Amino acid sequence: MTIPLILAACWSSSLLYADGPKDNLPDQVRRIPALGVEVPEKQRAQLEEGLAKLKSSIDQLKKTKDARIRSLIPDVEIYHRAVRCALEYQEFFHEREIGVGSKLLEQGQERADQLLKGEAPWTKQTGLVVRGYISKIDQTVQPYGLVIPESYTFSGKSQYRCDLWFHGRGERLSEVNFINQAQRSRGQYTPTDTIVLHPYGRYSNAFKFAGEVDVLEALESTKENYRIDDDRVAVRGFSMGGAACWQFAVHYADRWFAANPGAGFSETPLFLDVFQNEELKPTWYEKKLWQLYDCPGYALNLFQCPTVAYSGEIDKQKQAADVMEEALAKVGIDMVHIIGPETAHRIHPDSKVIIEEKMDSLARVGRQRIPETIHLVAYTLKYNRMNWVILDAMDEEWDLGRIDARLLSDNRVEVNTNNVSALTLKMSAGECPLDMTQPVTVKIDGLKINVPRPLSDRSWEVSFHRENSTWELGPAVYEPGQLVKKHNLQGPIDDAFMDSFIFVSPSGKSASPTVEKWVQSEMKHAIVHWRQQFRGDARVMQDSQITDKEIAASNLVLWGDPQSNQILKKIIDKLPIQWNQEMIVVGNKQYAADHHASVLIFPNPLNPEKYVVLNSGFTYREYAYLNNARQVPMLPDWAIIDLRTPAGSQYPGKVVDANFFDEFWRLK
Fold this sequence. Notes:
By secondary structure, this protein is of the alpha/beta class. Helix content is 27%, strand content 24%. The protein starts with 40 loop residues before the first helix and ends in a 9-residue tail after the last strand.
């Protein structure tokens, strides 16, 4: 989402592009990020010299066996990667940024020199601090910014409130600019005695997909380095960051003591209609897939997360909160909506005072770990937990699933469900309020079941599954080798890129020259755009290089067909879609293999706890970069692509068939 204003949501003033009619033309998509300025040879030589020196120091640090020093190397590497990428990919967007790059190299070298002496003064620094971590997704170093309050005691035991602040859209928000801003500006809010975490979110994707994982990883890294009170963590943001805040609030409602979204968007179709004047013509599965990130359907989850929404009175993006206010009203919740009088796209100073008073009050109360009443709404097993309730399996993913659970008197628990086939009630040690000396009864959809009591450490865990339409105690039992969709193994294709993945290139050639050309082009496209849009480096290995180590640890993205890719040849007969030199066979349908290709996600037959993906990177393409609300999955679990239609800015070719697998990973 972009607007013709200088956003208060960004740390520094940076003019953003305006969405307009031209951004509704899929065949005329501008490059995002745009190419930056040419770096003069003298300055390029200086930067390259600084990069070489810093890399030498980093390489020296990596030889140490000191675990503490090794754990701090990412705090140095972020400077090297930021400048290297800006120089290599022409992402200095203004001449002054070249000078910023030089300063970042000096700062990185200073940290490296300190760390080589066993010192790390930035780890004991208050105020503005930039840190880094190694992402599980692609093993790249990623930066995050912190505001450490002056009151923070590095040797104490007291725990601190932490507010996550999601930044606004910035098409020029390279790592160089992000780190520079994080070292110069405290941002919109700096509450007393509060650590403020500014995630990078892997650029400008509304903190979705790898951007979503970045937030969770940055938070975990912050918790490893600072004393964070788990019961006093909040999510906040404005503009694109407001959209991110809505998303994190509804998907992870039990993790925060409060949410404070401002402006942004909260769903895809209405926002694009109102803000972009875009005429949408989605396929049936695209409409289903909107439910991954569209927030109104999850509104009831905010029963667990106190929410203080903000909008400017005359801000077009007030639409986001209006939509959520209506959705909350439908489930019986009256939303607190602070409105800045006669205010466009910024936070009114008087509103800030009101918002801070409410957030401070909520922080004093903190998160409720074991609430008596739980409401969990889910459309996918990706977001399957709320406090002590876990959704284990659904009748039909992408339809509304719901669990309502209540702790009652006399050791009774009442649970009502919709579109749920298995669930677990779980409380950790010390958390269960039930009487461990008395019998416990769970009434689930009207059926009373006597269940085990809490254990002596006050932990409690019971599972249920439906058998022939009747609830039974215990987890579902499947036949050996039976595949079933479950949390983090439920699809769609884009889910493979929210965990460790490897692109597996073919050592051979496809039987069809058309398929061969398309595979090579799409693999190159996926590699380039992973870095361009998610600021990482896709790991690429040839099929002959894949060992048990990679199979055990990562999702494998196989490029090619069974003739060209050895791994695909090995597993093709274990996939629900067959592919030979003549035909691709999907159930009773056949597609000529000389000009069709298969795209899919499936549990890897060589390791069913990880995915295998055929011929796809993340599924939204260049057209979606122009507006963050478009950045949603474009393909479900599988698709057949007719290669006679060239790949474009929306699809990898003509999608002639596509669908989800059922809850047992079978063709529907």
